[in-house]
Task: structure prediction
Amino acid sequence: MKNNKEAIQKAIELGCEFTGIEVDQMNTKPNVGEKVLARQIAAFILDKFIKMSGSKIGFHIGGKDHGFVNYSRRTINGYLETDIKFKADIDPIIKDFNIWYNAIPTSKLDTSEEILRTIENNAVDNVATIPNVSGFIEMWRRIAKINEKLKQ
Result:
């Protein structure tokens, strides 16, 4: 997982990219539709994936408060439920952020034992994304044992 500072910057970049504005324009006056939507998308993504309070997320997205984050969540969820084009356009962005944020660096995956430790350490956070965590971990334990036998 990436750290929060990287995640905040990435979410802001994705929101701005989606609306077609530059990152440095997002918090400038006047507050027009594209700027507001960019902040709402960034707040929605951060609220969905990062364990951070709404007030902290809002602070990093233009000095907003937790109410803005709550409003953003409701607004973007409303768009996702009612606007098919918006959903089709935003879903890949949300998916890409999820993959980027939860990626395990390949340099950490040198041996089966390291893979097993990485999975066990991350399993608690990602239980909702892996239907059968214990079965998955058991499979990696078996693979690690086989690899150890092959090394001997």
About this structure: Residues 44 and 77 are 9 Å apart (CA to CA). The two ends are 34 Å apart (CA to CA).
